[in-house]
Inverse folding.
């Protein structure tokens, strides 16, 4: 009897499966003639699986989502779904590599990139000379994340308001997958959502060639040091009368040829990505104190200690970057134990048992001269080579980042854009304008949340043509024309197959 059923369920010569399909077939105990199920009946829901069984252990240590992960139908939800249950391996192709190169080229064309590798190497040599327990190289993760905040939030937003353009700006938000809504960090089980905006511009909505607001900001700063305090104190004065100048958020998409995509799900995902960026930047701009707390919660979601001192090596390296002169005044204030007018930071009870003294790393005039020969930072560094009354931590960078975000308040445009670039030529061949819609984004968020919490099966690609290069195409329902009824019959066959296999195994065990 078993052999009869077995022949009905299993073809004599099933086609060999690729490694990805075979792994899922083994995992879900599928008979060789089955198709991949529309939804796994036994595994945890996608987000739980993504956060506990991921080949990238960072996502297990710090469960989170990227903005792009909320775009579940950016190509095909089923492909995303099956990839999650493979452990979320990342496979980069040539087009992705070219896209990354182009984005880096765009970033470098807008923001000065300073190579501090030689300085870092010398500082590490000095660190080998200091006693054990010195803060020269401590808290590497906190220091690295702080450097990103300094560069990709503080310095980039300063660039936005003084040049009209900034690229690669860090943003974040939170999502409540249970309720399907974007939320704040104080919501129970809120999941961090991180992103980087490709391009942000100040644009006069009535006359795109009018740069007078930026000119007024620069003129207002002429009598002040190039500092955060200078911009914060003078910005409203300079921006007065420039209500038509708004912040436009843009995502840059690269294509191997000069033709924008036509698949509805791909177009929709690109537009939604800009709407998420717009919403998150707008939210971060509203309340500096709340944004400060959200930034700290975001850092803590990565397992970082927001009260850990930044390393001496990281501190000095930061001074050599474009943000160095922006932060120099702040660092002197912190060293002197002074407040800088941000209540949540100023009123915090800081650790008093930390001895923070960069002069224990740079101990001689010769060492200082060598540092300044590599990068001319003597005016910035010299005042800091002493015992500090308060150690610099992620808290001070979060405070300044929150204040910089707040400059965007009430200046967000009611449209976003998607730019399409040819990755071979670098040419921007099309720009699409999207109207900001709160309802549209809320509906998309609810739909994506249903996917991540396993409340519905994944949806398939718009057309079979999109399945051409998919690793799951041979066994996916979409390209194989399977219907829901077919899937139900296959599920019965799968269960019967597993039953017969179990019976055979039991009989074999009984006979031995």
């Amino acid at each position: 009897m078993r052999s009869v059923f077995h022949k009905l369920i299993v073809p004599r010569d099933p086609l060999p499966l690729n490694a990805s399909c075979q792994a899922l077939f083994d995992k879900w105990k599928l008979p060789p003639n089955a198709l991949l199920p529309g939804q796994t009946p036994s595994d945890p829901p996608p987000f739980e699986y993504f956060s506990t069984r991921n080949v990238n252990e960072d996502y297990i240590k710090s469960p989170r989502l990227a903005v792009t992960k909320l775009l579940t139908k950016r190509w095909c939800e089923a492909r995303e779904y099956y990839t999650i249950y493979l452990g979320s391996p990342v496979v980069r192709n040539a087009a992705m590599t070219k896209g990354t190169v182009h984005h880096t080229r765009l970033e470098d064309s807008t923001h000065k990139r300073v190579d501090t590798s030689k300085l870092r190497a010398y500082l590490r040599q000095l660190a080998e000379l200091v006693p054990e327990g010195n803060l020269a190289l401590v808290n590497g993760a906190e220091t690295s994340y702080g450097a990103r905040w300094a560069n990709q939030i503080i310095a980039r937003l300063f660039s936005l308001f003084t040049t009209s353009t900034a690229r690669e700006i860090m943003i974040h938000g939170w999502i409540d997958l249970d309720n399907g809504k974007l939320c704040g960090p104080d919501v129970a089980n809120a999941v961090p959502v991180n992103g980087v905006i490709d391009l942000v511009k100040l644009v006069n909505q009535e006359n795109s060639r009018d740069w007078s607001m930026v000119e007024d900001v620069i003129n207002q700063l002429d009598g002040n040091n190039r500092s955060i305090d200078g911009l914060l104190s003078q910005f409203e004065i300079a921006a007065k009368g420039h209500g038509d100048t708004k912040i436009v958020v843009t995502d840059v998409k690269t294509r191997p040829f000069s033709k924008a995509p036509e698949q509805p799900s791909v177009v929709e995902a690109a537009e939604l990505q800009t709407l998420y960026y717009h919403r998150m930047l707008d939210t971060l701009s509203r309340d500096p104190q709340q944004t400060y707390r959200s930034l700290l919660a975001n850092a803590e979601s990565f397992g970082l200690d927001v009260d850990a001192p930044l390393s001496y090596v990281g501190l000095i390296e930061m001074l050599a970057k474009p943000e160095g002169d922006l932060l120099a005044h702040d660092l002197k204030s912190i060293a002197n134990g002074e407040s800088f007018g941000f209540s949540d930071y100023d009123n915090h009870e800081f650790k008093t048992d930390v001895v923070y003294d960069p002069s224990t790393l740079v101990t001689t005039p010769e060492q200082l001269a060598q540092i300044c020969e590599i990068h001319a930072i003597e005016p910035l560094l010299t005042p800091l080579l002493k015992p500090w009354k308060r150690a610099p931590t992620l808290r001070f960078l979060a405070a300044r980042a929150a204040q910089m975000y707040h400059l965007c308040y009430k200046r967000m445009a009611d449209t976003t854009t998607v730019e399409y670039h040819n990755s071979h030529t670098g040419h921007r061949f099309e720009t699409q304008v999207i109207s900001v819609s709160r309802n549209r984004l809320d509906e998309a968020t609810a739909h994506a949340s249903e996917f991540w919490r396993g409340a519905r099966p994944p949806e398939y690609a718009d057309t079979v043509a999109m399945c051409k290069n998919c690793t799951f195409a041979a066994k996916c329902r979409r390209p194989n024309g399977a219907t829901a009824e077919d899937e139900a019959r296959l599920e019965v066959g799968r269960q019967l197959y597993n039953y017969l296999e179990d019976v055979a195994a039991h009989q074999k065990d009984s006979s031995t």
Remarks:
- The first strand starts at residue 65 and ends at 66.
- DSSP finds 20 helices and seven strands in the chain.
